[in-house]
Specification:
The chain has 419 residues and is an all-alpha fold. The chain has 14 helices and no strands. The chain has one domain.
Length: 419
């Protein structure tokens, strides 16, 4: 498992770097307003993709070890087609994306949904390396095509949309080819496959949808109370801060696959606690390093209009650490088909975010948005921690790092190097 984690961390470094470089290109060629527009487009794609991907992604990871793919993939695609159309109507008439982009958002969300169906299959089969390869391919293509288009005369945010078509289209094809020769299920099928698939899929995407809105509702609030240029600054600060999730997200990918294929309750609990401690420890180190970077460096990297990021990231830091812990809890609940706890935690966090956002953003701007995020993320992870302890019987002290944890980690690393 350590090999899978280190491999996934390497892949995440590449995909995170590609995402940041997209923002760098946008900052220099389009300015902070362009970054803000791209942020809203990407948010719209993700939002509609969550609706369209209810039968893909997370539910696939749980179902693939138990049910043949021929019973899973066709209904997942049928759902994606219908809900992409529904999503188009929502984003267009609710004005969730800039004018003229709703059609693109719906089509790209469908491509993203198909991609998530096949990558969910790969994770359900514990083919983490193959998942990492196609995810890196997607991120490299997005940056490469966007850079080629953006450095032409008179670039626009539409260049990002065209790059996304190429990246998601090719990644969808690659992920589909990777699942052609799939092994048969290795675990008993649940009673009522369709009912289980629907209930778990809707629950997973309900949790993911609430979580997405929790993470990004501040974007809409900033645009409403301030402007797209300030939103661009916040997008950059948020992206940099979320870079501290690189290890937690890598760990979570492996944890989800591992928990879904483990029947021992004690084994699921133990691996989740180990991954929780590793995630938070690495996030602390990443945030400290990030906060030591001089402001001049950010302006040089992202463009002269990008200034004043460090105070925003400092206020966001407690929430980012909370979300690092949340990655482990969320994937434990998903891997054990207890997604109601993820729905509940995201709902609690969203209520906290809205209450704090409406109170703080009008008067304190970007710092108010950052503070709202930290309050909301801490509220969400507190619920998850309590639910995890109640479900597994874990004590609070078990969730805290100890010297024994450090020794065990060193032993694992040393053993991996010897092999």
């Amino acid at each position: 498992m350590l090999k899978q984690i280190t491999g996934t961390i390497g892949a995440r470094i590449i995909t995170t770097a590609m995402g940041l470089l997209v923002t760098v290109v946008a900052g220099h060629r389009l300015g902070v307003e362009g970054i803000g527009v791209i942020g809203l487009i990407a948010l719209g794609i993700t939002l509609v993709g969550l609706l369209a991907g209810a039968f893909g992604g997370g539910v696939m990871v749980y179902m693939v070890p138990r049910v043949p793919l021929t019973r899973l993939v066709p209904p997942a695609y049928a759902w994606a087609v219908v809900l992409s159309a529904v999503g188009y109507v929502i984003v267009k008439f609710a004005h969730l994306v800039p004018e003229g982009y709703a059609e693109h958002v719906a089509v790209l969300a469908f491509l993203q949904s198909g991609y998530s169906i096949h990558t969910g299959v790969l994770l359900g089969q514990q083919r983490v390396r193959d998942y990492n390869y196609v995810d890196m391919l997607r991120s490299v293509l997005l940056l490469g095509v966007f850079a080629l288009l953006a450095f032409r005369p008179s670039p626009t945010p539409l260049d990002y949309v065209h790059a996304a078509y190429g990246a998601y289209g090719i990644a969808l094809l690659a992920s589909a080819l990777a699942t052609r020769n799939s092994p048969p299920p290795s675990m008993p099928a649940p009673a009522g496959v369709w009912r289980t698939m629907a209930s778990q899929g809707l629950m997973v995407q309900g949790a993911n949808g609430l979580q997405l809105v929790l993470y990004r509702v501040s974007y809409w609030l900033i645009e409403h109370y301030r402007n797209t240029s300030l939103l661009g600054l916040y997008v950059v600060a948020n992206q940099l801060s979320e870079g501290a999730w690189l290890v937690p997200r890598s760990v979570a990918v492996v944890l989800y696959s591992k928990v879904s294929n483990t029947e021992s309750t004690e084994g699921q609990k133990r691996v989740t606690i180990d991954m929780l401690k590793l995630s938070v420890s690495c996030a602390v180190l990443a945030l400290v390093a990030l906060l030591l970077v001089p402001e001049a460096v950010f302006a040089w990297v992202f463009g002269p209009e990008v200034r004043g990021l460090r105070p925003i990231m400092a206020v966001l830091a407690p929430g980012i650490l909370a979300l690092a812990a949340s990655q482990a809890f969320s994937h434990y609940f998903s891997g054990t088909a207890q997604n109601k706890h993820n729905v509940n935690s995201s709902g609690i966090g969203l209520l906290a975010m809205l209450a704090a956002g409406f109170a703080l953003i009008p008067g304190y701007g970007l710092l108010g948005a950052a503070a709202s995020g930290s309050v909301a993320y801490l509220a969400a992870v507190t619920y998850q921690a309590v639910a995890f302890m109640r479900v597994t019987g874990a004590r609070f002290g078990e969730l805290l790092p100890t010297a024994a944890d450090a020794r065990r980690l060193r032993g694992l690393v040393a053993g991996s190097q010897k092999r």
